[in-house]
Amino acid sequence: MQFTVELPRWAVDAQTCLPTHLPLIEDQMQAVIRFSQMNIDHQTGGPFAAGIFERDSGRRIVLGVNRVVPSNVSSAHAEVVALSIAQQMLNSWDLGSASLPEMQLVVNWRPCAMCYGATIWSGIRSLVIAGSDDACERITGFDEGPIHPQWTEELIRRGIAVQDGVLYEQAVQVFESFRKSGSVVYNARNG
Prior knowledge:
The protein is 41% helix and 13% strand. The chain is an alpha/beta fold. Strands 2-1-3-4-5 form a five-stranded mixed β-sheet, with helices on both faces. α2 runs parallel beside α8. The longest helix is centred in the N-terminal third of the chain and has 17 residues.
């Protein structure tokens, strides 16, 4: 037995059109937000995308998108997809390994309860997010689950830098687009 989660064809193709390096965090986030919108437009998952980049050079490793509904895998959140593909591409379960450049996870919103744990376990050294308030849940209806009240401090304590508020308004526009699309909100028990 096995399970697989694959990126949709459009996401694979769209990555080939991106520059190999996006040194500015705003450019990295712009790509992530664009992928989150395209995931809605192509009806291939929820309004979330995540990218793995070398922190210092901006070299793009991979951009992943949410694949929960089309794959029937509840853990196929954008962060888990991007982290897992990056780990396989780099042949390392530890993206914080001394043999690798420091890796950065860029996501179009604060991690949910599951992705928070995946972030810690992945070994990445930096997390960049568009926002962390209640806008995602309020606009889309997703239940992001309980998260530690001092979640940023906990990440920092574990050696993961956190930057919040990168292209906030653009990320919120994607959530509005998702709400208007009438797409499935896949909360298991509606919170």
